[in-house]
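Researcher: Good morning. I'm working through a list of sequences from a screen, and I'd like to move beyond sequence-only analysis. For each chain I'm collecting a predicted structure so we can compare shapes side by side. This is the next one on the list. No need for commentary yet; just the structure.
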Amino acid sequence: MTAEPAYQHLMSELGFVMTQVGSELVGTAPVIDEMCVPGVPHLRTSILATWVDHLAGLLAAQAMSPRVPVTLQLDVDLIAPAPGSGLVRGIGRVLKRGRSVFFAGVEFDAGDDEVFAVGTGCFMAAPDEALNLPPKLSLEHAPPAQTLRVPLARRAGCERLEPGVSALPRSDDGLNSANTVHGGLLALVVEEAMLSLSPGATLCSLNLRYLRPVRVGPAVATARTSAGLGQIEVRDAGNANRLSVLATARLFDR
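Model: Good morning. Structure tokens for this chain:
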């Protein structure tokens, strides 16, 4: 009898491994083709946003424990296009530990100390005080059973419906601890809506404001551009089309 494969969260297939180094969190992952924008040899900016969420979110959890942190805002700005191979390293640091909000910053390099992208994450404690983190937060996790075998958008079921519009279904392996769509996947649907207007491009900035969780799905992103600035709305189509994310993005000049 063949054993059933162990359950694995979609985001774990990105292979990001974190370690504590003093007051900093350091995360690393090998970049493979499936993490890049299809047809473009550069890591997806939405994946960098996901890694900002991982690093900054864990720093927030350490600071807010036992309260559960909720992501309010993620920002990623690239100095140069992200690499399409090799190892990427992110270093997360606390910027502000306030009573009600928490800020952390992340710098990304390709293992050579040359920063190619910076990010920030802003968090607040979940309003429901009954939600609590585990008594001990651990960074010790087994390596993923597998890494991406198909491009990320295909793996997540994210589709470009028409120029400027993309959709992402709710899936059991793409949820967060509150059983709503993971913030990193919402970054992906935003990126796909923007890139559908300019095939072959990559994002040099991605700024996300999380207004409301996507509980039902699909998450539908609609992008419009003006003078090089993309403005994107994400709505929970199965939940009265409620506005969930407001985002802005810019493309690298080609």
